[in-house]
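[Discussion] Sanity-checking designs against the backbone

I'm trying to build intuition for which residues belong where. Below is a structure token string of 166 positions. I'd appreciate it if someone posts a full sequence so I can compare it with mine line by line.
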């Protein structure tokens, strides 16, 4: 429902996604209520997707998604301002920088974003004002000359770091 939000009132406890990276073939409705953190650029839908996920995350929900590494630092066409607003709203729980060559469709490195609306969840410690950054760029094993694969140990290391921090 990204292009035409068919479920505008849907609030999910968990949002998990792998949206198309740097999608330039999308039509932006400037009055869309999902753009609470800034108007996404016309030529790149990355932060439109991010705001779509945030919009549909429940008050105590979590969102996890994959984006190109550029989403962590791009300042083109207002993307930096949107990212800043999301950070200032204290929605970013964890960011994981991953190595390149994990996907068959692209060799670029990616990052995992984990967002939450409630960092005071009683099952975990109070994480307000905190964001965990995990550098996993050197993890994984090359399974052939162009593809990398994370081992069970690699995944356990990343997940263990996140869960110990929470």
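Best answer:
Here's mine. Compare freely.
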């Amino acid at each position: 429902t990204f292009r035409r939000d068919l479920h505008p009132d849907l609030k999910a406890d968990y949002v998990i996604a792998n949206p198309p990276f740097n999608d330039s073939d999308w039509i932006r409705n400037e009055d869309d209520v999902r753009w609470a953190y800034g108007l996404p650029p016309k030529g790149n839908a990355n932060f439109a997707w991010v705001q779509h996920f945030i919009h549909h995350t429940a008050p105590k929900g979590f969102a996890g998604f994959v984006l190109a590494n550029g989403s962590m630092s791009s300042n083109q066409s207002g993307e930096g301002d949107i990212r800043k607003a999301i950070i200032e709203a204290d929605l970013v729980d964890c960011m994981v920088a991953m190595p390149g060559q994990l996907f068959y469709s692209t060799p670029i490195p990616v990052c995992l974003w984990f967002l939450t609306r409630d960092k005071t969840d009683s099952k975990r410690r109070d994480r307000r004002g905190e964001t965990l950054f995990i550098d996993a760029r050197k993890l994984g094993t090359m399974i052939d000359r162009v593809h990398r694969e994370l081992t069970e140990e690699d995944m356990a290391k990343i997940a263990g770091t996140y869960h110990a921090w929470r």
